[in-house]
Design brief:
It is a single chain. The protein has a single domain, classed as Rossmann fold (3-Layer(aba) Sandwich), CATH 3.40.50. About 35% of the residues lie in helices and about 15% in strands. The protein is globular and about 60 Å long.
Length: about 350
Amino acid sequence: MSTDWTIDPALGAREGYVDVDGLRTWYGIVGDEASERASGRSPLLLLHGGPGACHDYLESMAALAATGRRVIFYDQQGCGNSDQPDDPARWSIDFYLRELATVRRALGLERCHILGQSWGGMLLMEYLVTRPDGVVSATIASSPASMPMWIAATGRQRAALPSEVVATLERHEAAGTWDDPGYEAAVGVFYDRHLCRVVPNPEYVTRSFAKLARNPQVYRTMNGPTEFHVVGTLKGWEVLARLGAIEEPVLLTSGRHDEATPDQMAEIMARLPQAEWVLFESSGHLAHAEEPDRYMAVVGDFLARAEAGRAARGGDAAILVGGSAAGDPIMLARSAGMGRLTGRMGEA
């Protein structure tokens, strides 16, 4: 099966490019605009993670087009089907905010839902605090709001790996030999536990990782060599203190074994009275790919309620939902139950 598709041909997507700062940003649209208007739905715009991981691993989200809305993917510049200049200075939060706003204007998305996964959710939070018009709802999927908190959490997860795996990671990180097969194998042990617990990964997830490996410049510039060795420009980033500016209905999703740990999600909940948080019990960082049927049901229900005005907005809640993050953060979440994985579960 080819890994060079722009997007899975079975999805029947309409593809094109948007000019952003003189270079091309690719998009793909699944679903029919006429049907969307007839149903009164709003389109869903997806922000992929990484940074630099491209849209492919989100392709299971195309299932939400069956709810009568368009599902819109795009590859942020520097990866995937978009232009990929050798220009590390270009890769910044400010640039990607400008790209997001430009894509919305170019595609006529005056009213839309936005879902951001991992880095995409970080970008989404940065976008929402600027108070953009026309965002019907926001879904923040397995995203930190503080990279220092993320680094501490993934550090604890890493420390729980077998001692020989930890020793291999430390040896190669000290030497800077991040591309060594031994280092990549040790990283894989962590990823099977906390990134995607479906082993082997679904094809569309593997396709994203293959494209990222071919050009890791954005990822290594902004993040670093792995999910848990963060040495890039995002190392000190946080948005927690600014989240109170967000007024849209918000859905938080995360996995029980996620790198975006419950204490991190609870900190977001504590600052967003209107937020709902659903925890996927069988998943790591990619619940949409690990428990796709249950994930699409949760997100589809939330989008419909937001369109009908039945999802809380900022200012609607009389008291802070969940209150402080102190105590057991899981108590702030609604469990999605034990979903059926799409393949064999990785090691717990």
